[in-house]
Amino acid sequence: MSLRFAILGSGSSGNCALLETARCRILIDAGFSARKIGELLEARGLHPDELDAVFITHEHGDHAAGVNGLSRRPALKVFANPGTIEAITPRLRRRPTWQAFTTGARFHFADLEVESFPIPHDAGDPVGFIFRHGEGDLFSPRQSLAWVTDLGHAPALVAERIRDVDTL
Description:
The protein is an alpha/beta fold. Helix content is 18%, strand content 30%. The protein is built from 5 helices and 10 strands. A 6-stranded mixed beta sheet has the order 1-2-3-4-5-6. A 4-stranded antiparallel beta sheet has the order 7-8-9-10. The two termini are 20 Å apart.
């Protein structure tokens, strides 16, 4: 299976996208209530229990509001950098299964290679993500997707990072 991607919602009222591979289903940002995210997933024939992880770009509510409700699922991993974790945690009733990463780091989750990079925005430590999938051969072509939001402009670092992605 190749990458499958859908924007569940995008705007000042909330941001959330679904990325699927053969081995995982992840949300990129969770800017709606957990109930609303559940409804958006169910409209696609999925249940929130089928999610493996959530990747959070920054602490603003339109990107992280659903973390509290989604944290009812202890198996669900929530990836964020330490600055974002520190900013979100005081607003939560439950502690999610945080998976901290360093901004600028590359790491793997399931069959995805994940790269984070800093973006300019009025948040503590906002990031964009590049998700790469596939082995680069005939049966598993390499694919990449970048998720970059809330940019007033794209500085050279951001432009360089997203230059070669397949989907932006």
